[in-house]
Amino acid sequence: MATADKLLSVMKLFTMDEPEWTVEEATKRLELSSSSTYRYFNSLSALGFVEALNPGVYTLGPAIIEFDRMIRRQDQLVKTATPIMRRLVDLTDDAGSVLLCRKFRHQVMCVHSEGFVDPDKSLSYERGRPLGLFLGAASRVVLAYIPGRNLKVIYAENEKEIATSGLGATWEEFRRSLKRIRNDAIVVAYGQLDAGKVGIAAPIFAANKSIIGSITLVLNEHEVNTQMVERLSIYVQAAAQEVTLGLSAAFNDKHPGASGSE
Q: Which residue range is the domain that position 130 belongs to?
């Protein structure tokens, strides 16, 4: 493993379940020498990526917050989508939540949200929380557009979970399920992740036409009917297409003459 990979492996130790680490604990987990682990922690600490609030016990540092602020203010996907998301919320008379999710390895992650926040129950698609690809409208609509060669890997690694999710008990059934999603260009999911909620999601594409994420409208299931879902699905599709066009325009403005497909 290259030095850079080893350094990054220290950062990946920090999770919601394990937010604090000592050098000794990290040495054992990563199977590195003590001297190497000390060196990596010192380098990360000097840059503010980790810090020791208590002697010898490290947590994520303030540099992470600095980068988070940069993403919130400068990320092109968030900048492009935010006003479109707000207009989508307005169409629900402020009764809905709109989520912006992006593909993150073999997962999706909510990076921004607008609209109604239920004080009694938070949504599973919480900002910064990675979620799987097989349940939830925001996830499934991304899954449907992942290239075939990568889909085969995903299927091989998650065959049982895919079958349990209802996407198919075989590879062919799985492929057909995703083809139906692509044909519709929309996913409507009832209570798959959050009981009593309905999610309506459409795909967002990068300038090179690859899937980058999704936009999802979430409503209380008891407040909508079939006709409303059909009407709102059109709005969600239009919003996703507008974000896609906005990303392409922003890319062309910043890189005149460049090809988004390269």
A: 75-254
**Other CB atoms closer than 10 Å to residue 94's CB: what's the count?**
10
The single-letter DSSP state of residue 224 is -
For residue 14, tell me if it sits in a domain.
yes
The position carrying tokens 């407040």 is 223
pLDDT in tens, 149-208: 899 999 999 999 999 999 999 999 999 999 999 999 999 999 999 999 999 999 999 989
CATH of the domain at 16: 1.10.10.10
Residue with tokens 């929309």: 186
Which amino acid would we find at residue 181?
I
| pLDDT tens-digit readout, 128-166 | 888 999 999 999 999 999 998 899 999 999 999 999 999
Q: Are 132 and 107 in contact (CB under 8 A)?
A: yes
Per the confidence metrics, is the pTM higher than 0.90? no
